Amino acid sequence: MQEVRVITPATVANVVCGFDCLGFALTEPFDEMTLRRTDDPGIRIINRDEFGLPTKPEENVTGVVAAAALKRAGTDFGLEIEITKHIMPGSGIGSSSASAAGAAVAVNRLLGDKFSKLELVDLAMEGEKLASGSRHADNVAPCIFGGFTLVRSTEPLDVVTLEFPPLWATIIHPQIEIKTAEARAILPKDVPLNTAVKQWGNVGSLVAGLAKGDYGLIARSLEDLIVEPVRKSLIPKFDEVKEASLSAGALGGGISGSGPSIFMLSEGAATAEKVKIEMRSVYSRTDIEFNMYVSELASSGARSL
Amino acid sequence: MQEVRVITPATVANVVCGFDCLGFALTEPFDEMTLRRTDDPGIRIINRDEFGLPTKPEENVTGVVAAAALKRAGTDFGLEIEITKHIMPGSGIGSSSASAAGAAVAVNRLLGDKFSKLELVDLAMEGEKLASGSRHADNVAPCIFGGFTLVRSTEPLDVVTLEFPPLWATIIHPQIEIKTAEARAILPKDVPLNTAVKQWGNVGSLVAGLAKGDYGLIARSLEDLIVEPVRKSLIPKFDEVKEASLSAGALGGGISGSGPSIFMLSEGAATAEKVKIEMRSVYSRTDIEFNMYVSELASSGARSL
What we know:
homodimer; alpha+beta; Ribosomal Protein S5, domain 2; Alpha-Beta Plaits; 2 domains; 7-stranded mixed beta sheet; 4-stranded antiparallel beta sheet; 10 helices; 12 strands; 37% helix
């Protein structure tokens, strides 16, 4: 194979009670990427969008992951990587993860599917390290496996794919900047044991609710007693958006990744659209620019076309 | 109905990573209880075992729960309660819970099944309050629902029944006394956030592993980074028992309730019996008396015969 085109979905990590472990893939937005083997060695990056991301391979998430994949495969053919990103960097819905996962999946296709999905997650984590400084898998795991995933451990890497019923996400991305360092610094270093117990009760019951397709249980379990209470201060109108969404019939939701996007889950498309109207209504009364998405949760992740 | 006989199983609470939320029911040991409506008002308790538990209804878990059930039903017929306990009080495998759950289920039968299982758990929690000072549901939930349960919340009460594959438990009960107050006092008040994250990752993946019947995932998830490290010091030879059990093929396990019993889970009866031999071997080299049980996890809880 000489050329491969992949699409890689946006993802939501830190799913409410499941901080640093639960994530899911969306159907849209998604990034597009075309990789071509070239006669010349080295990696050349062409950005076909307006985000102005670096084109030096060692400074670009895609380039770093592609190089890591070639190295691990013990080969070093040349690559041209043409990228059209639709997932805005800094939105909190896995923009860098989509770049990283896309590169891993695309190079793997060119290599004749040498790596397992778990190995692709591991490779994509190299891109996350470049983007955020840490090898985390919260977004790249759902981006590669699709669906709802739980990262049980990163060292060693252990990704659990979860059963889940049809679910729709409504997302609002207020165009403000949240610095990852700030979002990290605001977190408590320690949590009271009894609060932690409630949180892991919710994680367990959310996984059970997803497996059973019990929407009532999913709704009751979408409660975050630890991270949301401190991080929501970084996102204007968070409480209003959440209250309006729940009134419109959303099951629950919270901060996507480390923000600024807010996501809400609904049982069906109609409710998700109602939630969108309510979210828009709240943010229309501010002077903050915003994007919105309504998307069914995707059962498949990054894939070649 | 004038008379009902119930059996109520032993239960394991605080299942490894699932401190204060995960529990399961055993097939044996179990308690037996016969309740009879009497012409005279009031509750009369007859103990047919050698544990010397109180016979005053207001000091006996069974009596307290029976009285609460009658009161909630708005009736007050007289009761004779004949109890043969086989689950030793203080063993850490839900002895008081079996008494509490048995009384709730038995009175409910006499009342013509007036209460739901969730209401029975709520009633049985009155007995736990007498026994331990707090209205907890970790043991009474699996004792009444059977199988593997997750108590998402006690206020309001929210019990989740979990899907699970065939599993066997091997239990050793070293006959030492662990005071609940001491087991509580030794717990950390706060836990580091990153440790709490690992713990809720394990809770989520344990629930997923149970739902999928993925024994490997169950084994990897049976890891407690918070409670076991401090409480195991209260149980002689804990590490040796655990290591020997894992070598014999156990999936994993830990402290049952707040101890002193240790439980290990296995995929089949043959492995569970091998684990028993290893556990016995460790404790035979001490001068501590002990009991042992091998039991399949029970899909049903307390029930009338």
